[in-house]
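Bench log. Compound arrived from synthesis this morning; before running ITC I wanted a structural hypothesis for how 4'-deoxy-4'-aminopyridoxal-5'-phosphate sits in the protein. Inputs:
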Amino acid sequence: PYTGPRADEILAKRKKFLNPAMFLYYKKHAMEGKMQYLYDENGRRYLDAFAGIVTVSVGHCHPTVVDAVVQQTRLLQHTTTIYLHHAIAEYAEALAQRMPGNLKVVYFVNSGSEANDMAMMMARLYTGSFDVIALRNAYHGMSPATMGLTAHSTWKYNVAQGFGVHHVLNPDPYRGPFGADGNLYANDLANLVESATPGRIAGFFHETIQGVGGAVELAPGYLAAAYDIVRKAGGLCIADEVQTGFGRTGSHFWGFQTQGVTPDIVTLAKGIGNGLPLAAVVTTPEIAAVMAQRLHFNTYGGNPMCSAAGHAVLKVLDSEQRQQHCASVGNHLLHRLRALQDKHALIGNVRGRGLMLGVELVTDRQAKTPAKAEAALLMEHLKDLGVLVGKGGLYSNVFRIKPPMCFSMQDADFLVDAMDHVMSKL
Ligand code: PMP
């Protein structure tokens, strides 16, 4: 039996010794993880439908990934890239093989913020332009540069950030002024390039389904039109696949493929390492070459241990056919959530793809009034039933359902039944 500190003691220590900006969703002690489940200090099981914020891709403590990490750690845990090691090269090759077009050159870093920082720098170096465009409601990181790309007041301090970053209208089919017409939102991007930049830009960042923003899938046709405008202005198109990558959307391996576009730079993090600190910037040899004009270095990026983990994740995704699984379980879940929407007026919108879904709660369907308090309360009640979901969106009124990709049909049914139960009792 467990004899270490209990949840209340840990909470007290966090309060005293950790920065108060760190927020807490679940006050239970997450002691152990096994695939889609977490266990607290009393051995109680929770269905983790948020995967540590979409980070655990193939499952908590997936045995293949754990074995790869343990084996590599016993042999050699760390070198920097100034030593020759096979793991980083083999893994880069395997990752590049998953990319379309000429996206063949990888730089490994440790977090999504770092990856987007690097993508921004590459775009500026390559184009010789400075202006960068992102979408409102985007989340691209918390470093000073990426906080500037992020477009949520919730996540911004009043410190210097985001020089040269502009935010365009978000092609949000549910809340946006042009509904699901991607081309009309793209007009706003064209207008911004003309009116607020020198006419030449460095790049355009986007998620294809906004994660922190509440599983907002960009209006159809938007990315094709936007990429065209960006490229005519000399800019690079940068897809942030930190949440949407690796088959999670079910229909495609990469989120951007759902809109039929091929970016110039792709940034990866979170699910890439099933929870290990690993991230990557993938681009073409021509764009990558611009960084060779100076030395560049990252101490931990692509170390043997994380490379072994990342490579193992790719193998598991294949051997367990996770993309197909995300498609079938995701479709079932969407179907059931839409039926739940018919039953409960509180659900204003159900959206997403595969295992990247959002359920937006409103107190008035016509006015789309965010049901923020209800979302917070229901999240607590779900937790009491042993179900952990995420919360997001500008108004914190969207349930984010992004479980480890091993989430089963039965888990999906249990989740929806639990939601039905707590909503019925509200
Ligand atoms: N991009 C997206 C789409 C994200 O969701 C996040 C993290 N929530 C980041 C970038 C930043 O990643 P990190 O926290 O690893 O810096």
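What the model suggests: The pocket of 4'-deoxy-4'-aminopyridoxal-5'-phosphate is lined by residues 53, 111-113, 116, 139-141, 207, 211-212, 240, 242-243, 269 (CB under 6 Å). The first helix runs from residue 7 to 17.
ITC booked for Thursday regardless.
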